[in-house]
Design brief:
Helix content: 25-40%
Shape: flat
CATH class of the largest domain: Mainly Alpha
CATH architecture of the largest domain: Orthogonal Bundle
CATH superfamily of the largest domain: GTPase Activation - p120gap, domain 1
Strand order of the largest sheet: 18-17-16-15-21-20-19
Number of helices: 15
Number of strands: 25
CATH topology of the largest domain: GTPase Activation - p120GAP, domain 1
Structural class: alpha+beta
Number of domains: 5
Length: 750
């Protein structure tokens, strides 16, 4: 729940006389509030405050300012749109400043979809077109005072046209009408309009299908409503990856970003992926203040990349200070409205302190904790994973090239700190349990301390640009410390991006010195020619870095067995029936002589098993010579417990997971799931892709919603994705056939 005070809007209207402005507030597609109308005023002051219940999956909050017309149609003066990311970046302080209204062109700002089922039938008397107009949904500038519209649909085919009925006061019209036209040829155009009793109807959007599409791939499904084509996009943006971004819905974009980063990271290509997405995002941004504020594939991919790669780094930087805050349980409060003097006995043996003393003491504690956190962050350049540093370096360069000049000097810093401080460090400080920094959530008092610290870290990440503009003036005593920290943060960011991309080290997910994971496990090494006893496992303390997997009797033990990570060639689960023990895994390594050695490890529970599988696979992701298969069992009783083969050196009977899946520490580690998620999204957009492949075959000058110079690029990218879908389907059918043949060959026939 967020409280958004709507104070005032200053606008200069290019018209004679005065206006009667009011404001509509929308959360995604829903109008949630409307202010009173301020009559005959060009500089309205509302002073109204609204408490909005924002759903967790909302995308943006929009404010539309309109001029009320008591006779005809209300005019849209302008709007402000705040993305979820922009609101989160301003939280918990909120946005308390003047924002420029942007122009709203109803014929260009079209953000809706229409559900169609079109059939072109050939009959003796000529062709017959059946257009089933089912429903529509859209998020447009409000047309009526209520923030809704009175939509109807109109179709054009050749020289003929038909209309549906008008559905009153809705943004989700459901027509379920079949419109039929006879004896014509040419493109089909479907338009959606808002009916107006007085004055002209308002355009809501359109979609057009050329004749070839009607014949070869009749439209069926949801289609985006488009404005009348009058602008050309950059041809370079039309790539298969860009189209995946376009055909995916906002709800699925975060999942797609996660799976793409996992897949590319497993192949050592995550950094080039991020550079492509960031370059596309930066190139399409005109206002540096809105950079990476939208729910784009680029911003989601960058955020997921940090979580996947940077968790050990985050732990090493923040855990000492977070643990100290939890253990000391100090009472910290700067807000006079929240200070509880009865709690001050904890910080004084002289009884209750005054409010001034509480604030002084709290300020000292906050600056102490902040100093420790800032020292840990700014001194962590060498601890940051090289892959993250190179990704930030490339982002730094792209932003610098896109927004040159002294007036944009800080943009290249804010682009990085917006991710690193606002989306990585600050959320982890606010809720340590969600980042595995603590096992339990904080108590209310500690939680309040963490909130104040997170606010301060956010302000530092914003380079102090919003200091003094918000409502929380009680944070002012902290401002000198925050402002003094900005120079250190900039120096830190300069050092962070100062890394050689050519050295190859950036493909490593962790720096050599970092301890990725450690803890007690039970281990048994299977030596060549020897049997593995069932109860021969010994308790040892394991320590994993990017260079070695070592173990000893205790953490402080000097005698250690060390295995170079570069020799790991498989990290897999072990069947429970191999040793009659649960939560088993194996690490297969190759000696200098080429001999394969297997280390069997037992974990305490399934979560610990997943954590160690993930950690060792991450550390060995770039190894060469990974095994394509291995045995999920053990060689006991002169045979493998999994496939019952009696040859110890026989090829493994189960494929390995060398294409590592990198998720949260509790990730089930199924690499097929990531590819399946992307494949499913491609299938959902298959009909749209089929339609786009025909664009290049349209005659020159043929009217289409897609600009003519862009058609060939769009069609080629769509064809590429369709070819991928076809290849995957063929591979799936071939695998099914192979499994059927194997099953048939193993059965007994009379």
């Amino acid at each position: 729940m967020k409280a958004w005070p709507l104070l005032a809007v200053s606008c200069s209207l290019h018209r004679s006389g005065s206006s009667d402005p009011y404001c509509i507030i929308k959360v995604d597609h829903e109008v949630v509030a409307r202010t009173a109308t301020v009559w005959r005023n060009l500089n309205p002051f509302w002073g109204e405050e609204y408490t909005l219940h924002l759903p967790l999956d909302f995308h943006h909050l929009a404010f539309y300012v309109l001029d009320e017309d008591t006779i005809g149609h209300d005019d849209v003066i302008g709007k402000i749109s705040l993305s979820k990311e922009a609101i989160a970046a301003a939280s918990p302080r909120g946005i308390d400043s003047w924002l420029n209204l942007s122009h709203v062109d109803p014929d260009e700002e079209v953000q809706g979809e229409i559900h169609l089922d079109v059939k072109l039938l050939t009959e003796a008397q000529g062709p017959r077109l059946c257009c089933h107009i089912i429903e529509a949904r859209y998020d447009l500038a409000p047309r009526d005072i209520s923030g809704t519209s009175d939509p109807f649909a109109r179709i054009f085919w050749g020289s003929q046209s038909l209309e549906t009925v008008t559905i009153k006061k809705t943004r989700f019209p459901h027509w379920d009408e079949v419109l039929e036209l006879h004896g014509e040829e040419g493109p089909l155009r479907v338009e959606v309009w808002d009916w107006d009793m007085v004055g002209k109807n308002d355009f809501l959007g359109m979609v057009e299908f050329p004749p070839d599409v009607l014949l070869q791939c009749p439209p069926r499904g949801w289609f985006r409503l488009l404005p009348f084509a009058n602008a050309e996009e950059d041809d370079d943006t039309v790539t298969p990856l860009a189209m995946l971004d376009e055909v995916s819905s906002g709800e699925s974009r975060q999942d797609i970003a996660t799976q793409l980063v996992k897949i590319f990271l497993g192949r050592g290509l995550a950094v080039p992926l991020l550079d492509y997405l960031n370059l596309r995002e930066v190139s399409r941004t005109t206002d540096p203040n809105t950079l990476f504020r939208s729910n784009s594939l680029a911003s989601k991919s960058m955020e997921q990349f940090m979580k996947l790669v940077g968790t050990p780094y985050l732990h090493e930087v923040l855990k000492p200070c977070v643990n100290r805050i939890f253990e000391e349980k100090k009472y910290i409060e700067l807000d006079p409205c929240k200070i509880e003097l009865t709690r001050t006995r904890r910080i004084s043996f002289k009884g209750t302190l005054s409010e001034e003393h509480v604030r002084e003491n709290s300020l000292g504690l906050l600056t102490g904790y902040l100093g420790e956190i800032l020292e840990a962050i700014t001194g962590s350049v060498d601890k940051c994973p090289p892959a993250m540093r190179v990704a930030f370096r490339q982002l730094h360069q792209r932003v610098k090239e896109r927004f040159p000049g002294t007036e944009n000097e800080d943009v290249k810093y804010v682009a990085i700190s917006g991710f690193l401080f606002l989306r990585f460090f600050a959320p982890a400080i606010l809720t340590p349990k969600l980042f595995d920094l603590r096992d339990h959530h904080a108590d209310p008092q500690t939680s309040r301390s963490l909130l104040l610290l997170a606010k301060a870290v956010q302000s530092i990440g914003n380079l102090g640009q919003q200091l003094g503009r918000g409502k929380e003036q009680w944070m002012t005593p902290l401002h000198p410390f925050l402002l003094q920290s900005i120079t250190r943060v900039k120096d830190f960011l300069d050092k962070l991006v100062d890394i050689d991309e050519e050295g190859g080290e950036f493909w490593l997910l962790f720096p050599p010195s970092a301890v990725i994971k450690e803890g007690y496990l039970h281990v048994r090494k299977a030596e060549a020619g020897a049997l593995v006893p069932r109860f021969a496992f010994k308790k040892r303390y394991f320590c994993l870095s990017s260079e070695n997997l070592s173990y000893s009797k205790a953490p402080e033990w000097q005698v250690r067995t060390s295995i170079p990570v570069c020799r790991v060639c498989a990290v897999e689960r072990v069947d429970e029936n191999a040793f009659q023990q649960p939560h088993m895994m194996q690490v297969v390594t190759r000696s200098r002589e080429g001999q394969l050695d297997t280390l069997y490890i037992q974990c305490k529970n399934v979560n610990e098993l997943n954590q160690w599988l993930s950690a060792i696979r991450k550390a060995s992701v770039c190894n060469e010579g990974m095994l394509p298969s291995c045995h999920p069992g053990a060689f006991r009783g002169n045979r493998w417990t999994c496939c019952l083969q009696q040859d110890r050196t026989v090829q493994g009977c189960s494929r390995t997971h060398s294409a590592v899946t990198l998720g949260d520490w509790s990730d089930p580690l199924d690499p097929d799931a990531e590819a399946q998620m992307v494949y499913r999204q491609l299938l959902l957009g298959r009909e749209v892709l089929s339609f786009l492949t025909i664009l290049s075959s349209l005659p020159s000058g043929e009217k289409s919603a897609v600009p003519e110079p862009q058609r060939a690029h769009t069609a080629a990218a769509a064809a590429h994705l369709l070819a991928v879908i076809e290849d995957l389907e063929k591979a799936h059918k071939a695998l099914e056939q192979q499994e059927k043949e194997q099953a048939g060959g193993g059965s007994l026939h009379p």
